[in-house]
Design a protein that fits this description.
Blueprint lengths: L11 H10 L5 E5 L4 E5 H17 L7 E5 L4 H12 L3 E4 L6 H11 L3 E5 L3 H4 L11 E5 L13 E4 H5 L16 E6 L9 E5 H11 L12 E4 L6 H4 L1 H8 L2 E4 L6 H11 L3 E4 L1 H13 L9 E4 L6 H11 L2 E7 L6 E4 L8 H8 L10 E5 L14 E6 L28 E9 L5 E6 L4 E3 L2 E3 L1 H9 L4 E11 L3 E10 L7 H9 L10 E4 L13 H9 L5 E3 L3
The protein binds adenosine monophosphate.
């Protein structure tokens, strides 16, 4: 028997229409360096309609991938809502990728129209000769346009293009399974892989972001996505905020600790989201200077394991609660969120909050052991995490004429996503990741968690950052190399750090190889880039001190 329910497609245009009417007074506030620029959701709705008309005039139609090379700002939000709502596909480009990857991605996606911030034109201009598919460039915001003089694709000004366009658009009734957005993974090995989100997945994911299991946005909130809008849709915050009527504070290109602190003091967001390295910088700023950031109730940390010392630092010294979450480009990204279970207090509560958290009903996890067996949720059996659900990728974009790609190392034969993350799950569903499968240190027959060693090292007051990688070892196969960035003015030596570690981990796990480095290399989305460290070690570029375990 079928239900008697209506079958209304879950589309981005519904989020746009709802947010711009019911929550028309909520605002998107863009930081401009000195003061904030404010635009209501009602205006965003009108301008999104104008943008859709303008893009249609440039030939953008249903299914057209349309690129954005933009910071987090109001215009990017308009593109986020207008492009999918008109039936085209929002393709967010990571402005920190190396030139070859960026050009490869634009060509693979077959972008014809690209929206770009004026401040990013110096980055785009040299790539243009290698971007033959591009027909139109639309430049938004400040920045010297003259670098595009004589450039091949036609150049338009965003505001001029919108001016005079109708403020309403008859949004088409789309298939909810149609593509809404396209985002390529950062591609540490091989070519980047395109994840195509559907209208349905964006809609359902936004609902989940707004539950108490996740971040429970409401019209009383101002959300600050420091995580870029090109990194998994800024973790779903723009769509979720528009749906819930939560205002948005967009940092644009002002991502350093001092301007972040200033915009928090001025605009008073209630919730922020970023990778640990960003929050580490802000914590340093807050510790060093007196700032009134009491407005910030919650900080979401994800994208890499959150060191417990960072969590405690925010909470104990500044009264800001950190919520740890796990996700991937392939998971939209909301996977698990670490809210403690009812009744947990003190150390038990902290222990839960430093895990990667629990999954919502829509994301089903399983752990797979080395022999392909499904492992129990006993908090001890460690295996590769696999997930499935309505906002989890089932394959990668194959290009304009290509077929969907389902590589064996990324998808199981029965269609689950292989995350490449290794961990345990407790009987009450809390995930603890011990490593990326490729970062785990296989020493003799035992595995050493690089994340565990890093977390302990970073808890030493003399350590600003620490990254541990596996390096080849004649006797054990692999052993840990500890690379350490000392805190300003700190003088801790290897012996002291090793003794500190020795009190916290088993003796056989203690690294023999140590190197002091000026900073940990970071990926295009601000995570520790262990690939670079491994290469630097292999090429003899690190000054390694070695002593017996
Ligand atoms: P990306 O697709 O760039 O967002 O990277 C996804 C990967 O980031 C995951 O597969 C994890 O390895 C890592 N990651 C994300 N969140 C966390 C977290 N909270 N703890 C540990 N690793 C994480």
């Amino acid at each position: 028997m079928l239900s008697t329910m209506q079958d209304v497609p879950l589309t981005v245009s519904r989020i746009l229409t709802h947010g711009s009417t019911v929550h028309g007074e909520s605002e998107v506030i863009t930081w401009t360096g000195a003061d904030p620029h404010r635009r209501t959701f009602a205006e965003v709705g009108r301008r999104a309609a104008q943008l859709a008309h303008a893009l249609a005039g440039l030939g953008v139609g249903e299914g057209s991938p349309t690129g954005t090379l933009m910071w987090n700002n109001a215009e990017h939000l308009e593109a986020y809502l207008a492009i999918p709502s008109m039936g085209a596909v929002l393709h967010t480009l990571n402005l920190r990728l190396p030139a070859e990857q960026l050009t490869w991605i634009v060509n693979h996606a077959d972008d014809r129209v690209l929206l770009v911030n004026g401040t990013l034109l110096p980055l785009l201009a040299p790539l243009l000769p290698r971007l033959p598919t591009l027909e139109h460039i639309v430049v938004a915001g400040p920045g010297d346009r003259s670098v595009l003089d004589g450039a091949r694709p036609e150049v338009h000004d965003y505001e001029e293009l919108l001016a005079g366009q109708p403020e309403r658009y008859d949004w088409p009734e789309l298939d909810e399974r149609a593509a809404a957005a396209l985002c390529y993974t950062s591609g540490t090995t091989g070519d980047p892989k395109g994840v195509v989100y559907s209208h349905r997945s964006v809609y359902l994911h936004s609902l989940q972001v707004n539950t108490a299991e996740a971040f429970a946005l409401s019209p009383r909130d101002i959300a600050l996505p420091v995580v870029p809008m090109f990194h998994v849709n800024a973790w779903g915050l723009p769509h979720a905020a528009f749906m819930a009527g939560a205002s948005l504070l967009m940092p644009d290109r002002f991502l350093q600790p001092a301007p972040l602190a200033e915009m928090i003091e001025t605009v008073r967001p209630t919730i922020g989201a970023a990778v640990p390295t960003i929050w580490q910088g802000l914590l340093g700023e807050l510790d060093a200077t007196r700032r009134d950031v009491a407005c910030l109730e919650t900080v979401i940390i994800g994208g890499s394991a959150c060191p417990p010392v960072l969590m405690r630092g925010f909470e104990e010294r500044h009264g800001i609660r950190v919520v740890h979450a796990w996700g991937m480009t392939e998971t939209s990204p909301l996977g698990s969120v670490a809210h403690p279970p009812a009744g947990a207090t003190g150390d038990e509560e902290w222990a839960y909050r430093t895990t990667q958290g629990r999954f919502p009903a829509s994301v089903e996890p399983r752990l797979i052991g080395p022999g392909g067996e499904t492992l129990p949720w006993d908090g001890e059996s460690a295996g590769e995490l696999e997930v499935r659900g309505p906002w989890i990728a089932g394959g990668y974009y194959g290009g304009a004429d290509g077929e969907v790609q389902r590589p064996d190392d990324k998808f199981s034969p029965d269609g689950w996503l292989r995350t490449g993350d290794v961990g345990t799950i407790t009987p009450n569903g809390f995930l603890t990741l011990t490593d990326r499968a490729k970062d785990v240190i296989k020493s003799g027959g035992e595995w050493i968690s690089s994340v565990e060693l890093e977390n302990h090292l970073m808890a030493h007051p003399g350590v600003a950052e620490a990254a541990v990688v596996a390096v080849p070892d004649d006797k054990w196969g692999e052993r840990p190399l500890a690379t350490v960035v000392l805190a300003e003015g700190a003088t801790a030596g290897y012996e002291e750090l090793k003794a500190f570690l020795g009190e916290r981990i088993a003796r056989w796990q203690l690294p023999e190889r140590w190197a002091l480095i000026p900073s940990v290399p970071k990926t295009s989305v601000g995570k520790f880039d262990k690939k670079v460290l491994r290469r630097q070690y292999a090429d003899g570029e690190l000054d390694v001190t070695r002593f017996g375990a």
